[in-house]
Specification:
Elements lengths: L3 E3 L10 E2 L2 E2 L3 E2 L6 E5 L3 E4 L1 E3 L6 E5 L4 E5 L2 E4 L4 E3 L4 E5 L2 E4 L13 E4 L3 E5 L2 E3 L4 E4 L11 E4 L2 E3 L16 E4 L8 E3 L2 E3 L9 E6 L9 E4 L2 E5 L12 E6 L10 E6 L2 E5 L1 E6 L3 E6 L2 E4 L12 E7 L14 E3 L2 E4 L22 E2 L2 E2 L6 H17 L15
Parallel strand pairs: 1-6, 4-7, 5-8, 6-9, 7-10, 8-11, 9-12, 10-13, 11-14, 12-15, 13-16, 14-17, 15-18, 16-19, 17-20, 18-21, 19-22, 20-23, 21-24, 22-25, 23-26, 24-27, 25-28, 26-29, 27-30, 28-31, 29-32, 30-33, 31-34, 33-35, 34-36
Antiparallel strand pairs: 2-3
InterPro entries: Pectin_lyase_fold/virulence
Organism: Hymenobacter nivis
Protein name: Right handed beta helix domain-containing protein
Length: about 400
């Protein structure tokens, strides 16, 4: 444990240049479910490429601590899969999603984890994937056995199928990760390009919760873009962030969530929704949308900046105790009326807890959106932070 393991390649290609990295590449030989299956703890690096939707690049099949450091991954399926009880750190890795090889299935996730006991995803770059998915959690143990997602660069979260249509995809989705203290989702940079991506909720918290003493904390992230496909179409139900989930009891519902100092730019439907759960606190965030795509085409899928509504008709004691305060919003909705014509900073009749909203002066333009990017870069510089891998190599587009 703790030493880098250079794993032999099945196929050595002299002079291979994929994404600017000349190295040997390990390929999957059917029938297997992953190019590399890790059964022993330690630190692993290397280049792993899959050519089939059903074959992951790396599968972690041990509860011993595993670190993936500096890996280069590409494939149409999940790039990294972690099984029950995994203790996994993914850092300085680069992932490239490839087109699916089967119908009615999108490109896989960068990380897909089922009931891990510790998961750290930091300083990575991944493109054209369906993001990070965490499905349930092993029983909370030591304070360090929690979820950390920080300093990552994601490009084009993409749920499209090769045969038309698509699936819901997120930069980060937590499914039934309940009562977990210490969760930190921070300083991630997510950029989605119109007509090259299909994201639903960039961040979706589904029946997932922190604790009263340690809320699930989502802060200081920059998220740009949530569009239908094609981007000029509609209707669209995506968001920047939403609390979600159909649980009908306090213990099972999404709860104890704090989201602050995030920036959501050019988001279709709603920048920030509370659609489920209890004790959700959104404050000091920024939401800006000009009503135009970056190339100047009109963007008609926008609805509002802030929305709070009981989508699942949860009982009064379950959908309760929400606070939405001191957010700065300037969202164009063609035909909207809040606070002025063609604006909808707050959802009509669905923002009762919203207080102290700062409405940006109009007009809200593409230049206003670009100013948010400048603000984000200044924030990183002020805090001495770098997002993405801390090494120089880059994956291909």
């Amino acid at each position: 444990m703790g030493t880098a393991k250079s794993l032999g390649c099945w196929l050595l290609l002299a002079g291979l240049d994929w994404g600017g990295l000349k190295t040997c590449v390990r390929h999957a030989a059917a029938p297997v479910d992953a190019v590399l299956v890790i059964t022993k703890g330690g630190t692993y690096s290397g280049t792993y490429r899959s050519s089939a939707s059903g074959v992951a690049c790396v599968r972690v099949a041990t509860a011993e601590p595993v670190v993936l450091d500096g890996c280069v991954l590409a494939g149409p399926g999940h790039l990294i899969v972690a099984g029950e009880g995994a203790d996994l750190t993914v850092r300085n890795c680069r992932g490239q999603g490839l087109p699916p090889t089967v119908d009615k299935q999108p490109t896989g996730r960068f990380v897909d984890a089922y009931r891990p006991r510790r998961l750290v995803v930091e300083h990575n770059e991944f493109t054209q994937t369906t993001g990070i998915g965490v499905n349930r959690w092993a029983s909370p143990g030591a304070p360090a056995q929690t979820l950390t997602v920080r300093y990552n660069q994601a490009r084009n979260i993409d749920g499209r199928w090769r045969n038309g249509g698509g699936a819901r995809a997120s930069f980060l989705i937590l499914n039934t990760v309940q009562h977990l203290p210490g969760v930190d989702v921070a300083y991630n940079e997510v950029l989605n390009t119109p007509d090259q991506s299909l994201v639903e909720d960039n961040i979706n918290l589904y029946n997932s919760s922190g604790t009263a003493a340690s809320p699930l904390h989502v802060h200081d992230n920059f998220v740009r873009g949530a569009y239908p496909f094609p981007a000029t179409g509609g209707p669209f139900t995506g968001t920047g962030i939403t609390t979600d989930g159909d649980a009908q009891t306090l213990a099972a519902a999404t709860g104890f969530v704090e989201a602050d100092h995030n920036q959501f730019v050019g988001i279709g439907n709603s920048a920030m929704n509370i659609a489920s759960g209890h004790d959700v606190y959104y404050h000091d965030n920024r939401a800006v949308s000009s009503g135009y795509l970056p190339d100047g085409r009109r963007f008609s899928a926008g609805f509002c900046g802030l929305g709070v509504f009981n989508y699942y008709r949860q009982p009064g004691g379950v959908f309760a105790n929400h606070r939405v305060a001191d957010n700065t919003v300037g969202v164009v909705r063609w035909g909207g009326h809040s606070p002025s014509a063609d604006r909808q900073d707050e959802a009509p009749d669905a923002c009762a807890p919203c207080q102290g909203t700062v409405h940006l002066p109009g007009p809200i333009t593409l230049a206003t959106e670009q100013a948010e990017w400048v603000r984000w870069q200044a924030k990183l510089a002020l805090n001495g932070l770098t997002v993405g891998p801390l090494t120089a190599q880059k994956t291909g587009n």
